Amino acid sequence: MGAALLATDGQIYTGCNIENSSYGLTICAERTAIFKAISEGERNFRAIAVVSDAKGYTPPCGACRQVLMDLAGNIDFIMANSKGDMEIVKLKDLLPLAFTQRNLKKNHRT
To answer: Is the domain 2-104 a CATH 2.60.120.10 member?
Structure first.
């Protein structure tokens, strides 16, 4: 699987799944791309596209949803499949009631 993260300035940061025998320490394409972008100083994003060889769409795992929400905000999430079909959703729709910076504020009440 591969991901391409679009910054607001037009720069694209790519990522792929990086797997290892521990499984739990594997990193998804989405997190690879955003960690790459953040490590290079980028902080403003427009969209991320994920492409896989599956016949259907491959949505992000829970960890990727939370990391993307924390570091990129409510960006467009584009899913494409092996047939060339595409679906675009807002990240907020994939992670309703997300834990955000607002929840970390001392005076926040739920």
So the answer is: no
